[in-house]
Design goal:
It contains 18 helices and two strands. The longest helix is centred in the middle third of the chain and has 33 residues. Keywords: Ion transport, Membrane, Transmembrane, Transmembrane helix, Transport. Pfam families: Na_Ca_ex. Belongs to the Ca(2+):cation antiporter (CaCA) (TC 2.A.19) family.
C-alpha cells in the first residue's frame, strides 16, 4: 500500500479566511455579528478539485483488485457493520425463493426484508469510501443521496403497483413510509447517536451551524407536509351537495402538487447554501470533527477502496438492494391481508431497512466522537425525504395520473411535527447526552406501539374521499 499523506491543510481552529480579518476565529465572527450562523464571505471559500484524495481517502492503489475489494468491504469500518455482513447469504436466498416459490408470500417478504440490510450496509460503506475522496459537504450529500435512491425505488415501485389490482391501494403505504422515514432518522437514529455517544463521555458538543440549519429546514418541511392535511381535515366537516367530498379531495391534491414544487425549490436552495455559498463553514466544522475522531489513527491505517472499486461496490449494492426492494413491495398487499396494517408497515417496518446504512454510519460516528458528522447523517436524510423524495413522488404520480398527494393521515403528520419539535428542543443547546438519546428512542417506541394498533385505511381514515 502506498504511503499515506498527512493532511495539514485543514484549519483546526475554525479560522475564517478573508482579507483583513484572517486572524478572527469563527466564534469571534459569530459573536460580533450577533447571529446564529457565522458569516460566510466569498473570499473565505475554500477551493477544491472534484476529488480530494487525501489521507482520509487514499487507498495507495489503482484499478480494481477483486480479492482485496471483497476483503475491505467485509471488514467495513466498524464491528457492527462487519457483523451485518454475515447476513449476505440471505440475498441470494431471497432472490431464489422469489422465482422458485412465488406462492410463499410471507417467506419472500421476510427474506427480502432481511436481505436489504447487508445490501444497504454495503451501499453505505461504498458511499462513505467515495465520500472520503470528495470535498466534505459534497461527499456527505453523495453518501446521503445513495441511501435515498433505495427509498425512491421503493416509492416508485409502490406507485407503479398502486391501483393495478383491486386490492392494491398502496398510496397509504407510500405516505406512511415518507413520514416513517423522517421519524426513524430523527427519533431512532439520532436518539441512538446521542445514547451511544453519551455512554463514552459526559456530553457531546456539536456546532450550532449544523443543528440550526437542519432543524430550520425540517420545520419548513413539516409545515409543508402538514398544510394539505390540515386543509382537508378543517373543511371535511363542511361538505355539502355543492362542496362535495370529492371536490375537497381534488383541491387537496392540487395544493399537494403546488406544495411539492415549492418544496423542491427549497431543496435546491438548501443545496446552494451547503455546497456553494456557505460550504466553507461546514467544511471547517467537519474538518475539526475529523480531528476529534478517537479512532482516526486506525482509520488512516485501514485498507481502503480505490475509486473504481467504490463505483463497483456501489453498483453491486444498488442492484441487490433495488431487487430486494422490488420483491419486497410485490408482497406488501399479501402481508396487509394477513393483518399487518398498512400504516405500521409504512411507518415502522419499511423505514427501518431502507435507511439501515445511514443509521449504522451515524451511530459509528457518534461512538467515535464525530457528532457533527453523525448529525449530518441523521438530519440530511430526513431533509432529503421531506424536500426531495416526497415531492418528487407526488410529481411522478401526477405524471402517471395517480392521486398521490401530501394529504396524510392527520394522526401521522402530527407525530412527525411533534418529532421535529422534540428533536429541535434537544438540539437547541448544542449539547447531547445519553439521557436525551434514550428519550428519543423511547418516543419512537411509543410511536411504534400506537401505529401497531392504528386501524387501516379501510376502517379509519382522515384523508380518503
Amino acid at each position: 500500500m502506498g504511503s499515506i499523506r498527512s493532511d495539514n491543510s485543514q484549519n483546526t481552529d475554525l479560522r475564517l479566511r478573508g482579507s483583513g480579518d484572517g486572524s478572527k476565529t469563527l466564534k469571534e465572527k459569530t459573536s460580533q455579528s450577533n447571529s446564529i450562523l457565522p458569516t460566510n464571505s466569498n473570499t473565505s471559500k475554500r477551493r477544491y478539485g472534484l476529488f480530494r484524495v487525501k489521507s482520509a481517502g487514499e487507498s495507495g492503489r489503482t484499478g480494481i483488485h477483486p480479492w482485496h475489494l471483497l476483503k475491505v468491504c467485509f471488514r467495513s469500518v466498524c464491528t457492527l457493520s462487519m457483523v451485518v455482513n454475515i447476513l449476505w447469504p440471505f440475498v441470494p436466498a431471497a432472490i431464489v425463493i422469489h422465482f422458485a416459490r412465488p406462492d410463499l408470500h410471507v417467506w419472500i417478504f421476510s427474506l427480502n426484508y432481511i436481505a436489504m440490510v447487508p445490501s444497504a450496509n454495503l451501499l453505505g460503506f461504498a458511499g462513505g469510501e467515495l465520500a472520503k475522496k470528495l470535498p466534505k459537504m459534497l461527499g456527505i450529500l453523495v453518501e446521503t443521496t445513495l441511501s435515498s435512491v433505495v427509498e425512491l425505488v421503493l416509492f416508485m415501485v409502490l406507485l407503479y403497483k398502486h391501483g393495478r389490482t383491486e386490492h392494491a391501494d398502496l398510496i397509504p403505504v407510500i405516505q406512511a413510509a415518507i413520514l416513517g422515514s423522517i421519524m426513524a432518522n430523527l427519533l431512532l437514529c439520532l436518539g441512538m447517536c446521542f445514547f451511544v455517544g453519551g455512554l463514552r463521555r459526559e456530553e457531546q458538543v456539536f456546532h450550532e451551524a449544523v443543528s440550526e440549519v437542519g432543524t430550520g429546514l425540517l420545520l419548513v418541511a413539516g409545515f409543508g407536509l402538514l398544510i394539505p392535511s390540515a386543509f382537508y381535515s378543517a373543511l371535511r366537516g363542511s361538505v355539502n351537495e355543492e362542496f362535495t367530498l370529492h371536490a375537497l379531495g381534488g383541491y387537496a391534491l392540487t395544493i399537494s402538487r403546488a406544495t411539492s414544487v415549492i418544496l423542491l425549490v427549497a431543496f435546491l436552495t438548501y443545496l446552494v447554501f451547503n455546497l456553494h455559498s456557505h460550504n466553507s463553514i461546514f467544511d471547517e466544522v467537519l474538518a475539526k470533527d475529523e480531528d476529534k475522531d478517537e479512532d482516526r489513527h486506525e482509520e488512516l491505517a485501514r485498507a481502503k477502496l480505490t475509486l473504481i472499486e467504490c463505483f463497483v461496490a456501489i453498483a453491486v449494492s444498488l442492484t441487490c438492494v433495488c431487487m430486494s426492494a422490488v420483491f419486497l413491495v410485490q408482497e406488501i398487499e399479501f402481508i396487509v391481508a394477513r393483518g399487518v396494517s398498512d400504516n405500521f408497515l409504512g411507518l415502522i417496518l419499511v423505514p427501518l431497512v431502507e435507511k439501515a446504512a445511514e443509521h449504522l454510519t451515524a451511530v459509528d460516528e457518534a461512538w467515535d466522537n464525530q457528532i457533527n458528522f453523525a448529525l449530518f447523517h441523521c438530519l440530511s436524510p430526513s431533509i432529503q425525504t421531506a424536500l426531495l423524495n416526497a415531492p418528487l413522488t407526488v410529481i411522478v404520480g401526477w405524471g402517471m395520473d395517480k392521486e398521490m398527494s401530501l394529504n396524510f393521515e392527520i394522526f401521522m403528520v402530527v407525530l412527525v411535527v411533534l418529532s421535529i419539535l422534540v428533536v429541535g428542543n434537544f438540539l437547541r443547546d448544542g449539547k447531547s447526552n445519553y439521557l436525551e438519546g434514550a428519550l428519543c428512542v423511547l418516543v419512537y417506541f411509543i410511536v411504534a406501539v400506537c401505529t401497531w394498533y392504528y386501524p387501516g385505511v379501510e376502517i379509519a381514515s382522515t384523508n380518503q374521499y
